[in-house]
Specification:
By secondary structure, the protein is mostly helical. It has 2 domains: 87 residues, Four Helix Bundle (Hemerythrin (Met), subunit A), CATH 1.20.120.1760; 98 residues. Helix content is 80%, strand content 0%. α4 packs parallel to α6. It starts with 6 loop residues before the first helix and ends with a helix.
């Protein structure tokens, strides 16, 4: 199988390349590292939106791109959540982060297994998953920034959104598992 390196795939690879850059900047003893990390994370989010948009708009969807895009998303989210939990060590942050990371592993494994039995369509991305992703990405961006902005408690809002994302994560996981169980019982 030949791997096509089109614009959407290159954007996805860029998102993966931003992970070590974000890690280096995260640990730099620089007063603006939180701002730089937030901007890097935002850039990764833009590449995520843009690669999907371009793949559909320009009809450049490939099996490799379909595989790589969610991998890049999950690696970025898990990696940044680990950095944030390490920096702001608290069970109140670790628990929702663990829920989110655990769900990502569970659903990725479920999708792979459902694909093996020819039922992948039963666990496709839902609107609930998109809401979860939006809350999660905004929470992570705010937690990376973490400083109050014009009197707004950015970190506290990030915590709140992370809990919303964790709740949506559990809800969507239950929906995916229910759909998978239903598909299996039909077989």
């Amino acid at each position: 199988m030949t791997i096509e390196y089109n614009i959407p795939t290159c954007l996805t690879l860029l998102r993966l390349a931003l992970i070590p850059l974000l890690a280096v900047v995260f640990y730099l003893p620089w007063v603006y590292s939180n701002i730089a990390c937030t901007l890097i994370f935002f850039l990764a989010g833009v590449t995520d939106w843009l690669d999907g948009y371009l793949a559909r708009k320009m009809q450049l969807e490939t099996p490799f791109g379909a595989f790589l895009d969610p991998v890049a998303d999950k690696v970025m989210v898990a990696f940044v959540l680990v950095l944030i939990v390490q920096q702001q060590a608290s069970p109140y942050l670790a628990v929702p982060a663990a829920i989110i990371i655990g769900r990502e592993i569970t659903i990725a494994s479920l999708r792979e297994w459902m694909a093996e039995i020819g039922q992948r369509a039963k666990v496709k991305v839902s609107d609930l998953g998109k809401w979860k992703t939006s809350a999660q990405m905004l929470a992570i961006g705010l937690l990376l920034y973490r400083e109050d902005l014009l009197g707004v408690p950015v970190n506290a809002i990030g915590y709140g959104l992370l809990y919303i994302a964790a709740a949506l994560t559990l809800w969507s996981m239950v929906n995916y598992l229910s759909a998978a169980l239903k598909a299996m019982s039909e077989k």
